[in-house]
Amino acid sequence: MILPNIVIYLVITIVTAMVYIPAVYADGAIVEIPRNAGDPSFDPQFPRPIEWYIPTNLRITVGDTVTWINNDTVTHTVTSGKGVSRYEGITGKLGVADGKFDSGLIERGERWSYKFDEPGTFTYFCTIHPWMIGSVVVEQRIPDYPHDANGNRLTLPVMTITSDRKYHVGVAWAPPVIKTGESIAFINDFFDVSGTIKQHLLKYYFVLYQNGKEIYRSLGYSERGSDVKYFVFSEPGPIIIRFEEIGGSPDNNAEFSTIVYANDDDSTIAFTSTISTAKIDTVIIHMITYAGITGLVVSAGVIYWWFRRR
């Protein structure tokens, strides 16, 4: 029958419309502030996309410069920190700046640029219209070779002499470039000071430090001169790999370094959290928009049931 097909079509169309929330992904170093960006009002029957800044979420690499161009008819700012939802904004709630960068007033037709020298996710908003939000994800330039915390190329395994000059120890890691969320194998080798005779059942502690904090410690013993430790990093940044108390001596240590990089998948999570407030707004508007139409669908279902009875 035609009627049942119409009812099914209406249900699918409305449910799809209610759950779809547009997201903007873009590359480049230009961000446009479009015309009417500061207007929080809109017809709820035609929900507008989140376009306070275009693109809303920008992905760049360390050292890149981003330029914001004000194509609106009113003044705006680009201020790092946390904005508010549209509903919070029109009731007078303000955003909270974090002091990382601030454009000051960008008048109509003007532009402002900022160079990002550190990796991370930087959220920002307009202090005049605090519901206008955006983010810049700054990714570290990732070499395709193993290197130390200063970026110097390494040949794995990296070897060094212990502080008591009794042992020649080394470490290699796989994969050779470390990223968050991946299981990393650290292959640790222990030799006599000449570097020719492997040391069996040599006691030591394998320790990882990141951002000034100890994040992992494990007791180990060399098996025929080698041992393997595994770890998954959750945060990017430089790390120190330390062998401590080698051979049972409290002051006998060896140290290495490298960098952990953010996995590409992590930036998606960061972007999702950045626009979550705006998504909540959109969901509410969709619910209001389609509440009446949902009633029509229920009515159509009743009509369909009545026809089935006949």
Automatic annotation (TrEMBL):
Originating organism: Candidatus Nitrosocaldus cavascurensis
Blue (type 1) copper domain span: 53-139
UniProt-listed InterPro entries: BlueCu_1 (IPR000923), Cupredoxin (IPR008972), ET_Amicyanin (IPR052721)
Keywords: Copper, Membrane, Metal-binding, Transmembrane, Transmembrane helix
Membrane-spanning segments: 6-26, 283-307
Molecular-function GO terms, alphabetical: copper ion binding; electron transfer activity
Keyword Mitochondrion part of the UniProt annotation: no
Domain of life from the UniProt record: Archaea
Gene3D superfamilies hit by this protein: Cupredoxins - blue copper proteins
Keyword Nuclease in record: no
Protein name, per record: Blue (Type1) copper domain-containing protein
Pfam families reported for this sequence: Copper-bind
Cross-referenced PANTHER family: BLL1555 PROTEIN
